[in-house]
User: Fold Tryptophan synthase beta chain from Candidatus Terasakiella magnetica.
Amino acid sequence: MSDETVKYLLPENRIPKSWYNIVADLPQMPEPVLHPGTKQPVGPADLEPLFPMAIIEQEVATERDIEIPEPVRDVYKQWRPAPLYRARRLEKALGTTAKIFYKYEGVSPSGSHKPNTSVAQAFYNKEAGIKKLTTETGAGQWGCSLAFAASLFGLEVDVYMVKVSYGQKPYRRALMETYGARCVASPSTETNAGRKILEEDPENRGSLGIAISEAVELAAQRDDTKYALGSVLNHVLLHQTVIGIEAMEQMEMADADADVVIGCAGGGSNFGGIAFPYIGRNLREGKNTRIVAVEPAACPTLTRGTFAYDFGDTAQLTPLTKMHTLGASFMPPGFHAGGLRYHGMSPLVSHCKELGLMDAVSYNQVECFSAAVQFAQAEGIVPAPESSHAVKAAIAEALDAKEKGEERTILFCLSGHGHFDMQAYTDFFEGKLEDKTYDEALLQEALSKLPNVG
Assistant:
């Protein structure tokens, strides 16, 4: 490769043949998932109302490599391997001594990393004879991705979209409907969970926890229907590791190795996708690549939350997982990075944080949008509001290297484009975008309601 190469591309035959399971390399096993009633570890039968057995087996798998089915790899060919870019123009604009690389997941049909798992989940559900899927979505990236995947495998989809995002992002809703899904603003009157919340607060703007409650409630009622989740759980992060596996090979093509790996984090899926292969390499080979998760200051799960057992949803229908949490009843303010408005963090990401295998930082939304605009003007790609957090952290790293006169190689995941999020950019340019802050008293109240696990 020449010294001025900008993008590093792999051929389709280099799509990974296996996903990477970080559990195989962890020095200490994560805590088990508990049944909400008995507080005992859940078994496959407890999860069968929600997931097909193939997904349940991946959720509890301990082997390092899990084969990607050929039908899934065939669909991946539509956009994988995704490109790795060297951000040469951004480096020049910053005047930094650092090298900045980004793995761009916005080349997928729905515009984000989410199809890496939605295609796999749709495939396994189809194989199990399932006819319909229910799910939640925040900003709409996951809803669009599951709708896309379901259309390929002939499945119906009901998407419960957080109401604040349902209003902010009508084009995401239109994309879901184009793929054939039904999109409902959450909380809705279609479920017991939704009706109860609306009775207490008719103006409720929704949250991912509420939307999960609605989707889970409906999935559990029908044998031909299962639930699909776009983040948080082990099998979801497993499917996303194609990001980091490809990135490692592409960094070798660039004759570079990352000193720091960065990803935005809401539930943890794109972060785990880029970071877990590097954390695993650190553990196996004794390398010291620094891993950084970036979250919104208005919903700071890793940097402010408590590491404890909690429900994944507001109505307390899900099993209990040990994770960094702000409390299942915590209601984050309505900031624009809807995909990061979740009260909990992936148990595996949380576990890695507790083991000291990674760091976490948080930023306010205005500074993230400023970084996104700077990135767009240099690199030409408009980041999704969620991805702007990783952009902000990467720029901060590059400027820190510049200040210290250090050479530093930075790799971050640009998890999606912002083409359906332009209202947020319009608000930013018009000075309407405000840094939202959570209510400390409400946070303490939510944390006081954490379930008592002996």
The first helix runs from residue 44 to 47.
